[in-house]
Design a protein that fits this description.
By secondary structure, this protein is an alpha/beta fold. 46% of the residues lie in helices and 9% in strands. It contains 13 helices and 5 strands. The protein is globular and about 45 Å long.
Length: 290
């Protein structure tokens, strides 16, 4: 007996119906609703203008490069799903890919809840003892939540820069993350400005994480939920990765600039231990891709 006509559907008709349903439905997003690519915004064009001379020189000589990342929870990796996703580990992977023949190690010395006073107390054991070539000094966040944090920050940053220079290492300061809890503190803007002022006075660079993340939100239109962990304060896997890529791009561009300058100097030659010379533009582009 033939079934009622309204239930009859051949294979072609079923496939057509499924195709229509797929076209009508938006593609599923990841559970954490993270963006796919790292946005290209004005902040990603920022540069580290002070030469990282020691780092460039050691790479050029084929010597090991040790980078110490010291800071608080956003250096330790709070909000990351695994240790490999925190920014020091991501930065190490990116720099090793960029300089495949170099010996580069990024050491994570982030401790939750700390700021400059605690970081200076452990400086000898957590920084100086490692004989770093470059120190990435992330600060300014937890100072916002402490009494007289802004008032004390300037002297502490001057001391940090002096102590890093005393061990003959390069230094880059990293300013606060852009998050609702940070923005809710009236001192957040003055803190970012203070770090710029201190860096300018002492002749070092600040990597502007605050501006980068602000552009994600304001220029690229990303909601906080897409680049912050569930506490709306710490970064997540995506933002750690994109932050690391942009920081890596800035560090690499600084080093490459010095290498190019050295290449045109009489009597100076490039060792084979650095990355292949034909690929810098391609690799630099890869630093800011997901």
């Amino acid at each position: 007996m033939r079934p009622p006509r309204r239930f009859a559907m051949n294979t072609v008709g079923l496939c057509a119906l499924l195709a229509l349903l797929l076209l009508a439905s938006p593609p599923a997003r990841a559970a954490d609703d993270m963006p796919i690519a790292c946005p290209q915004t004005k902040a990603t064009q920022s540069k580290l203008i002070r030469p990282l001379a020691r780092t460039a020189a050691r790479l050029r000589a084929g010597q090991p490069v040790v980078i110490v990342a010291i800071g608080s929870s956003s250096t330790a990796g709070a909000g990351a799903s695994k240790a490999e996703a925190n920014y020091p580990n991501r930065l190490q992977a990116l720099l090793r890919a960029r300089f495949p023949h170099a010996d580069i190690t990024v050491v994570n010395r982030g401790v939750n809840g700390q700021d400059a006073p605690e970081m200076l107390k452990r400086f000898d054991t957590d920084v100086a003892a490692l004989k770093p070539t470059l120190v990435l000094w992330q600060a300014g966040v937890n100072a916002l939540f402490r009494e007289n944090g802004l008032a004390r920050a300037g002297d502490l940053l001057h001391e940090a820069i002096a102590r890093v220079r005393a061990i003959d290492a390069d230094i880059v300061l990293i300013d606060p993350q852009y998050a609702p809890r940070v923005l809710g503190d009236a001192d957040s803007g003055p803190m970012v400005k203070l770090m710029d002022d201190i860096a300018r006075e002492d002749g070092v660079d600040v990597y502007h994480r605050f501006a980068l993340m602000r552009d994600w939100h304001e220029s690229a239109g990303l909601p906080f939920e897409s680049f912050l962990w569930k506490d709306k304060f710490h970064m997540n896997d995506w933002s750690y990765d994109c932050f690391s890529r942009d920081l890596g791009r800035a560090v690499t561009a600084n080093i490459d600039s010095q290498q190019r300058s050295a290449d045109v100097s009489p009597g100076v030659s490039m060792p084979v231990t650095l990355s292949q010379p034909a690929a810098p533009d391609r690799l630099l582009g890869a630093m800011v891709q997901p």
